[in-house]
Amino acid sequence: MAGIPFSKTSTLSTAKRLRRTRQNLGSYRYDLMIAMRVVNNIERNVLKAEWENWLLDENMRCKQAQLILRENRAATLPTGKDGKDGSRQKVLGEDNKMNELRKWHQDYCGSCKAEQDLLVGGEESVTFG
């Protein structure tokens, strides 16, 4: 029966309408797929721009933190021996905290700077993709 053409006009009309409907649905599906690709590209660009802004902000914060760490280092340089053991322990505790902060700054801000250098150099970032 598959090879026998439709004999009734109403059956032929229904078959044409169904074929046209399937073709229209295929066109709509294709248009939606293209629209989703466009939306995905726009979203990717927006996310990348937001990430770049965040990275710039983090690098600015790192520069500010570096200035504070430098000022603190200059302010805590030894000026002489005062002989107070309590103040020496307090200073050593603060030195340990500052050393931990410097280590964190070096690791975190070094990573931010490396990402910024990749971005400025025009290379695609490993982090963002």
Alpha carbon gap, first and last residue: 56 Å
Radius of gyration over alpha carbons?
34 Å
Number of helices: 2
How would the global form be characterised?
Answer: rod-shaped
**Which whole number gives the mean pLDDT?**
84
Strand proportion: under 5%
Structural class: mainly alpha
Features:
129 residues; rod-shaped; mainly alpha
Give a short synopsis of this structure:
The protein has one domain. Helices cover 80% and strands 0% of the residues. It has helices at residues 9-75, 85-120.
Overview of this structure, please?
This protein has 129 residues and is an all-alpha fold. It has one domain. 80% of the residues lie in helices and 0% in strands. The chain has helices spanning 9-75, 85-120. The two termini are 56 Å apart. The mean pLDDT is 84.
Topology overview:
Blueprint: H1 9-75, H2 85-120
Helix pairs in contact: 1-2
